Q: What sequence folds into this?
């Protein structure tokens, strides 16, 4: 909490706002976990990114295993969004409304929402969220869309279509779960940010971590290579006026999700296992041209 309060001015709950956490039983909402974080944020003058309203994971068993036809599924999603966005109305700067709706080839990802509702779930979610909190910024969020590529082309086309239809969408989130050994090219990330900006969208880097699992070299070399990647991606964001936030997916390496998801020796964040600032921290400050 100390490191968090001293170094950051924005916070994203990693699991506490997800469907299975907030609606463990149908119609029974529990925002206690998320409330703690929002209260901490307020006490420390931090903005909150709400994460996440519609995702193919974190589906509670009652909905995954229950039989719900299209109309009933629409009702479930509508109730979830009303309850959650309503509960945090005025306290969330930006909501990740729809998360990871695309496959890498650019097609709609198969998910319980696509199966039961069809692709219209995307538009519905943004409209309901906007009604529930007109002042919150509404984002589409995904991974692998940081640079110019097939998937970011599809995200661009999707969001351009939504804007043209007048759907209330304000921004795109680049998750930025990337690899230190094969990072996106800064110029490509910058150009990609610029094309979303040209649609009138804000850009946030929403879940940055830089995987060390495939790096070679000594530990020192690895940490400076990782630091350079943080510096480059921050540099891209700083060069683009519409890029308004850089959020990292955790504080200390000790608690990174990548240790269970990818490799038990992962060190992808800015602070080490003992909450000491790593070289990546200094590289990031260098990008910000911030002198401590
Ligand atoms: C991850 C969390 O970090 C884990 O703790 C949890 O078990 C699974 O979800 N993309 C997202 C995030 O949008 O919500 C995911 O978070 C990581 C990938």
A:
């Amino acid at each position: 909490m100390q490191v968090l309060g001293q170094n950051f001015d924005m916070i994203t709950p990693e699991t506490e706002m997800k469907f299975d956490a907030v609606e463990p039983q149908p119609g029974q909402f529990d925002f206690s976990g998320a409330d703690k974080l929002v209260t901490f944020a307020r006490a420390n003058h931090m903005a909150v990114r709400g994460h996440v309203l519609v995702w193919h994971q974190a589906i509670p068993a009652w909905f995954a295993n229950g039989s719900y036809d299209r109309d009933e599924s629409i009702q479930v999603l509508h109730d979830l969004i009303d309850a959650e966005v309503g509960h945090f109305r005025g306290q969330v700067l930006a909501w990740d409304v729809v998360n990871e709706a695309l496959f890498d080839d650019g097609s709609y990802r198969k998910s319980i929402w696509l199966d039961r509702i069809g692709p219209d779930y995307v538009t519905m979610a943004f409209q309901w969220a906007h009604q529930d909190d007109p002042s919150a910024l509404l984002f589409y969020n995904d991974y692998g869309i940081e640079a110019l590529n097939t998937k970011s082309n599809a995200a661009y086309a999707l969001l351009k279509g939504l804007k043209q239809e007048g759907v209330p969408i304000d921004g795109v989130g680049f998750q930025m779960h990337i690899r230190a050994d094969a990072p996106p090219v800064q110029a490509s990330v910058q150009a990609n940010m610029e094309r979303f900006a040209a649609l009138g969208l804000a850009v946030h880097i929403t879940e940055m971590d830089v995987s060390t699992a495939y790096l070679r070299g000594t530990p020192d070399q690895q940490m400076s290579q990782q630091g350079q990647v943080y510096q480059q991606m921050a540099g891209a964001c700083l060069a683009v006026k519409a890029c308004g936030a850089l959020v990292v997916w955790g504080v200390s390496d000790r608690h990174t999700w990548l240790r269970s998801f990818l490799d038990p020796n992962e060190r992808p964040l800015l602070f080490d296992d003992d909450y000491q600032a790593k070289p990546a921290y200094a590289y990031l400050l260098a990008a910000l041209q911030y002198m401590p």
Remarks:
- The pocket of XIL is lined by residues 14-15, 52, 99, 175, 207, 257 (CB under 6 Å).
- The mean pLDDT is 98.
- Residues 175-292 form a domain with the TIM Barrel fold (CATH 3.20.20.80).
